Amino acid sequence: LPEEFITAQPIIDTIDAAGYEAYFVGGSVRDTLLGLPIHDVDIATSAYPQEVKQLFKRTVDTGIEHGTVMILDHGTGYETTTFRTESGYQDYRRPDSVTFVRSLQEDLKRRDFTINALALRSNGTIVDYFNGLDDLKTKRIRAVGNADERFNEDALRMMRAVRFASQLDFDVDPATIQGITHHGPLLEKIAVERIHVEFVKMLQGNWPAKGFQLFLDTGLYQYCPDFKTQLPALQALTTRLTGSVGNETAVWTLICTQLGLQGRQIDQFLKHWKSANHLIDDVRIATDMVLAIQAEKLDDWVLYQTGEALIPIATQIATLMGATDVDATDLVARYRGLAIKSKKELAVSGQSLMAAGIKPGPILGKLLNTLEYRVATGELPNDAEKLTGAALQLANS
Ligand code: ATP
Ligand code: MG
């Protein structure tokens, strides 16, 4: 057993000793069986939340109405969730009610895919009610029970299926594919933020072409913001998806570049995808640099505007898109050699120029922008006296 399970064993054993059952469940069990690194260890238990809280000194009610209590142990938090069933799903996305139950099997039955419905006992043995081990061996993503019903209950599971295909290099079982193909439109009932998360994870997987092709073939793409009319461009992307795309900024920079979006179009598109403002800004800037590379117009000003953090991302995406003559290390080195990295580093300021006799107003702002450009591109040295002189000359011309 991996370290993470070993250190969590005392928690399971404490629950066991009190007469309840507890198991490791979810992604950590799946990933361990696949020999992959694990992130967080989830525990499922027959003990009700109040019963869990009585057994441990330090707990946090992270989602007590759904049965989740976090147990704090030596600085680590363990999410412990009471076995539950879900019912309702009137809105295709969340159950109307959850009911705590004492049966592990009932709990595993509500999970999305067989490979995610395995439980691991503290002694290392596996509980497998739905042939998840078989599907792990044959590399299959298969809905637990009836695929149509499961996607009808919660449409996000369709995005999760294609995401896991990308992450694990698994195929999706035919009946499950059919369920996705039939229920795609239900994706429109799901909060875009949640689709966004799965979409990014899909392209961050090590086999992104796999999930992405399924995303297109099943028609899921049609129910995502602004993708409906973009099949040719999206299809053309699959040949470029040879490995994990990288971070969230890289993912969206690739998509925006591929869709030919620029400037405000990027803002609109990413707003439709409910992206955070800082992400939108980064993607707009990185996409600008990719376009400059593609147009062979990469200069110091572009590097200055892109900034050190985004230069490697833009370079990587430009390379994915076919550029051959760019190297992130070289470009970062070139960036570091720029005389200034931001306007604040200019040797003159609005104040100092006014003190030198330039009137406040829009002209002053434009002058500062001009000086910023000339210093960043090396046309002028970053020297207060020389810049003030240049400013006075410009102001009088
Ligand atoms: P990851 O490695 O990305 O965390 P994971 O399988 O652990 O993958 P989580 O979202 O952390 O995914 O969910 C933990 C477990 O909860 C899943 O393995 C699955 O058993 C169950 N689960 C999560 N989301 C759903 C869902 N939408 N429908 C049914 N079961 C789900
Ligand atoms: Mg998880």
Return the CATH architecture of the largest domain. 2-Layer Sandwich
Number of separate domains: 4
Q: Please give the largest β-sheet.
A: 7 strands, mixed
Strand content: 5-15%
CATH class descriptor name of the largest domain: Alpha Beta
Q: Which ions, cofactors or small ligands are bound in this entry?
A: adenosine-5'-triphosphate, magnesium ion
Catalytic activity: a tRNA precursor + 2 CTP + ATP = a tRNA with a 3' CCA end + 3 diphosphate; a tRNA with a 3' CCA end + 2 CTP + ATP = a tRNA with a 3' CCACCA end + 3 diphosphate
Cofactor: Mg(2+)
Enzyme class: transferase
InterPro entries: Bact_CCA-adding_enz_type3_sf, CCA-adding_enz_C, CCA-adding_enz_firmicutes, NT_sf, PolA_pol_head_dom, PolyA_RNA-bd
Summarize the structure in words.
By secondary structure, this protein is an alpha+beta fold. It folds into four domains: 138 residues, Beta Polymerase, domain 2 (2-Layer Sandwich); 106 residues, Hydrophobic Seed Protein (Orthogonal Bundle), CATH 1.10.110; 93 residues, Up-down Bundle (Methane Monooxygenase Hydroxylase, Chain G, domain 1); 52 residues. The protein is built from 20 helices and eleven strands. A hairpin with a 5-residue loop joins strand 8 and strand 9. Helix 14 runs antiparallel to helix 15 and helix 16 runs antiparallel to helix 17. The longest helix is centred in the C-terminal third of the chain and has 18 residues. The relative contact order is 0.06. The mean pLDDT is 96. Bound molecules: adenosine-5'-triphosphate and magnesium ion. Adenosine-5'-triphosphate (ATP) binds next to helix 7.
